[in-house]
Inverse folding.
């Protein structure tokens, strides 16, 4: 395994040298995904990571399929899915044709929640930008001995937000 790490699901990336039959220790997988080994054990206990083999000394051996599942888990967790949502999604995924409507409903609900969070974050970011401009102008006015600005001239202004 290389030292390169994942920050959640990043498309279908593979690490140089990864093969379907290569195995990874719990520490290697935890490091790769920036999580504690206890989190991996929890995911296994919750049924999110299945069929994790053990070697002769009883240590977990993760394979490519577990890495792929962890990428999906991290992506969905970053999108705000709960453990319950993930469990349900993966149950549905076992028989997609029979559960396609439920899968789409779950994903649409998460998409709508993300859109609302994005709107709220954009609104908060704009308010912070307005305050930065307002207080920056107050500082300049104080430094230059000019009259202080009035907030009413800032509260509806639109400023660029860099992402």
């Amino acid at each position: 395994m290389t030292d390169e790490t994942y920050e959640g699901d990043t498309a279908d990336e593979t690490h140089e040298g990864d093969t379907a039959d290569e195995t990874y220790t719990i520490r290697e997988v935890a490091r790769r995904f920036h999580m504690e080994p206890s989190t991996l054990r929890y995911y296994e206990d919750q049924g999110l990571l299945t069929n994790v083999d053990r070697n002769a000394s009883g240590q977990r051996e993760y394979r490519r399929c577990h890495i792929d599942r962890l990428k999906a888990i991290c992506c969905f967790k970053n999108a705000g899915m709960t453990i319950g949502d993930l469990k349900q999604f993966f149950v549905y995924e076992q028989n997609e044709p029979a559960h396609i409507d439920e899968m789409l409903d779950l994903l649409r609900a998460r998409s709508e929640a993300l859109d609302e969070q994005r709107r709220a974050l954009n609104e908060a970011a704009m308010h912070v930008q307005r305050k930065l401009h307002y207080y920056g102008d107050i500082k300049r006015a104080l430094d230059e001995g000019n009259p202080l600005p009035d907030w009413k001239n800032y509260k509806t202004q639109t400023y660029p937000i860099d992402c």
About this structure: The chain has a mean pLDDT of 90.
